[in-house]
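Sorry, any thoughts here?
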Amino acid sequence: MFVAASQGTEGPLVGRDTETARLVGVLEELGSGRGTVVEIAGDPGIGKTRLMNMLAEMAQRRGVQVARAHAIRGSAIPYQAFREAAGDWPHPDQSVSDEAVFREIRTRMAGWAADGVGGMLLLDDVHLCDEASSQLAARLVRTLAPGPLVLALAHQPRRTDSMLLEALEHGSRTGSVIRIEPQPLDAETVAVLLDHWRTSEDSATIPYTGPTRQRATPADSSAHRGPLDSPEFAEQLRAASGGNPRHLRVLVAGGWEPEHWPDRPGSDTDGLLREAVAMTAELDALTPDVSAAAHTAAVLGDPFRPEDVAETSGRNLGQILDALSDLVRADVVRPLASNGRFAFRHPLLRHIAHERAAISVLLAAHQRALDLFAARGASAVQLARHAEHLVGTDASVAVNLLTRGATEVLPDAPATAVRWLRLALENLPSGDRPTAERATLMLECSRALSAAGRLEAARTMAHEVLRDHTYLAEDLRLNAYAVRAATERQLGRFAEAEASARIALHTLPRPLPAAAAELAFEYGFLHVFWGTYREARTLVREVVSATTTGGGAGTRGQGDATSVASVRVLSAFGDSYLGDTAAVIPALVDSAQLVDGLPDSAAARTPELLAMLGCTELFTEQYPAASRHFRRGLTLAQAGGPQQALPHCLLGLSYIDQEAGRLSEAEQRALEAERVARATGVDDAISMSKAMRVGAMIWTRSRHDSAAVVALAEESARTAQPGWWAGSAAMQLAMVRLISGDAPGCTEALLEGGGGEDLHLFQPNFHPMLLAMLSTAALLTGDTDAAQRWARDGDSAAERLGLAVQRAHVDRAQAILHMAEGEHAMAAKLFEQAAHGFRRGGRPIHHAWTLVVGAHSAESAHGSATAANWLASAVNLADIHGAVRVREEAVAAQDLLAASVTFDGTAAESPGPDITALLTDRERQIAELVTAGKRSRDVAEQLFLSKRTVDAHLARIYRKLNVSSRTALTRLLLGADDGGSE
C-alpha cells in the first residue's frame, strides 16, 4: 500500500479562489465515485506546491487515502518518486521490469478504489523525475485505474519530459485531465499578503525586518513612497514580482525599493538570500562551467548576447552556447523571440546569480564588460552600471562614468542618479578645501535628491555647498543659490527661498548676466505663488533679454539650455498671470518651441518647467497644447523621474478634464494629486487638490449633496496658504456656493479671496468669469445696481483679454440680468451667444448649464418648442458627461415648461386677469413654484437662491397682491373666490 503523508498548514492561501473551486470540484467528483488526473502547471514559485498541500489536506479531512512524493533533482534511482510514495517499493536492488512496476502501481491504486473510500496519489516537481518515473507517470495519465482515484501532478512545463507533456496535453484535450495553471497574483491580493506578513505573530512568516518597517522616513523619502501596505506599493511590488508569490516574498525580505528596481533587488542582501533558498538551490545545481556562464550573464544584465558572454568570460563561443543550452533546459534563462538574445527567467534570479558569484569573478567580469561596451560607444548609463562596481579598483575612471550616467538617468530614475553621485562624491580625492568639482557634484546630487522627492536631504546638501562659497566662480555660485532656493521652495519655505534668491541677485552687476537665469526663475516663481509677480517682472525680463539678445554676460548659446527655457517660460507665465494677453502669445510660441526641443534629461533639470508651460497655455485657453505639456511632465514623473511637478501636472490635467466635461477623470486626477501631495507633505497642493475635486463634484453630485460639496470647498479654502493656491481655492468655493444657491456666500468668497472689489489677488485672466459670478450673485440677492456694475466691469475685462470662454461667462451674466428685467428677447440672444462660446471653447458642462438657465427666456422670446429643445440638449449633454446636477435642473425646468402647456401643445387659458403683471420675473417665478406646493427651501434649491432671499421675495409678493399667506396666494393665482388666511 502507498504511504500516506500528512501536510501541515502554511498559512492563508489568498488569491486562489478559482483554483480552489476546481480542486473542490475534483473532490466532489471523487466522492461520487469518479476519479481523474489533475495537472498543476506553472513557473517556479507560482504556488503549485501550496495547491498540492491544500488538495492533500482537503482529501484527508474527507477520509480519502493520500500518498505523496516529491521528485528529487538528479536522482540516479529509477522510479525514485514512486518508490517514495509506495514505501520504497520496489527496492533499488530489485530487478523489476517497467511493465511489472506499472502493473503493481496501478494495482495498488485500484485497491484504494476497492476500499470504497477512494485514494489520491500526489507527485510534486515531476519535471525533476528520473526517466523511468516520467514514463511511468505518462502511462498512468493515459490509463488511470477506474474508480474514485486521483493522480495529481505538479510540474514546470518548460522542464518536463516530452512524453509526459504529450500525455498531459492529450488528456487535457480529451477531458481526462483537469489542468490548473495558477495565475499571477493581483495587486489586491499582494496587499492582503503584505498585511498578513506585517501583522503575523509568527516571525517565520514575516520576510522583512521589523513588523511595521517604513520604506523611508519623511525627511528622506521619494514622493511616491509610502507604507508597505499602501495600494501603490502593492501594485509596484506586484509588477516587479510578476505576481509570483515566491518572488514577492524574496523581494520584500530583501528590502525592495521601487525606485531602484530593476537595477537593484533591495537594500538587505542577507534577507534576500535567506528567503531565496529555492532559487539559490537552482543555481547551485548547475555544473561549474554552466554556473560561470550564468554569473557572467548576470554581470551583463538582461538581455544579453552569447558572444558578449563569451568575450566577458574569456571562453570560446562554442563553450558558452553549450552552457546556455543547459541554462535554458534548467529554465534559468530563456531565449528571446528571434533576436539571438537571452534573458534570465526573472530579474530577481539574475540578481541572485550576481550575488552568488565570487568577488574576484564579479570585478573581473565588470571590468571586461565595461571595456567591451565602452569600445562600442555604449550609453553613459550602461557604462555607469558597471563602473559602480569598480570604484574600489579605478576610482578616477569610475567617478567620471558615474557622473555622466547620473546626468543621463535623472529623468527616468533619480534615485539611481543619487546613488551614483554619492558614490562619485565618496571617491573624489579629499583635500583641505572643497573644490569646484566637488561643489558641482554636490549640486547635481541635490537636484537628483529633489527629483527623487528627498527634499530635506537635497536642502542640506545645497546649504553645505554654500557654507564656504569664496572659492566658487560666479556661475557656480549663482547655480548654488538657485539650487538652495529651489529646495527651500519645494519644502514650502517660501520666505527662505525668496531671501536666498534676492540676496544673490542684488549682489550682481547690472545688466544681469545670462548665468542668472536659473536664479531669476526661482525668484520670479516665488512671486507668482505669492501673487506679487509684478515685483519680479522687470528682473525676469532683464534676464530674458540677456539670454536672447546678447546683453549682459552671455547669449542663448552660452547659457544652459534648460535655464534659458525656464526663465522664458516664467516670463510668459507671469504675463499671462497678469492678463497681458498681447505680450503672452508671441512669447508663449517661442517658449513652447524651446521646451519641445529639450530632451527629457534637460527638461527634468527644472521639474516645474512643463507644468508652468502647461498652465500658461491653460490660462490662454490653449487646452490641447496645455494637455500635451502636462502629460509629458506626468510621463516623466511616473516613469520614475522628478516628482516635484507631479501634483501640478495632475491638477492641470484635472482642470482640463473638468472643463472638457470628463468629470470622473477630473475627480480621479485630483484624488491622485492629493495622495501625492500628502506623501510629500506639500499642504498647499493638498488644499488645491480638494478644491479641484469639488469643481467636478458640484456637477456630478445631486443637489441634495450640495452641503457636503460646499463643506469640502470651504475646508480647502481654509487650509490654503496665502497666494496662488488660496486664490484658486477661493474661486472654486465661490463657484460651488453660487451653484448651490448661496449667493451671499459666493460674494463673500470672491471679495475676501480677491482682496476687495478690484479682485487684485486673483489672476486677471479669470476676472471676467469672477465678475460675472459677482453680477449674478448680486442679482440673486436683490442688488440690481451692483449686478449691473459687476456685469459692466466683466465686459470691459473680457474685452481687454480677448479670450472666448471668458467672454461667454460675461455674456451669460448679462443675459441673466436682461431676463430679470423681463427683456427676454435680448436675454435669449445673449444666452445663445454664451452657449455658442462655451461649445466652441469645448466647455460642454457650461454649455448645458447656460441652456438650462436661459430656457425661461427662450420660451418667452421664441416659444415653448425652442425652450424644450434647449432643455433636451442640456439633458443629453448631462447624460453624456455624467453631470447629475445639470440633469436635475434641466428636468425640473422641463416639468415647469410642461405645466404651462396643454396636452396638445397650446398654452393653457388664464383663469382671469393677469394679476402677476404686478410682479417682476423673479417674483412671478417664485409665486408659480409656491402655488405648485413648493416650500421655501425647495424653491431656493431650484432657483439657486438662499431661503432668506426667497422669503424676502415672498414678502414683497404678498404686499403687491394684497394677500397674507401661501394659501391665499395659491387661491388668488388659481382663480379662487377669496384670499382667505391659513
Remarks:
- The chain has 48 helices and seven strands.
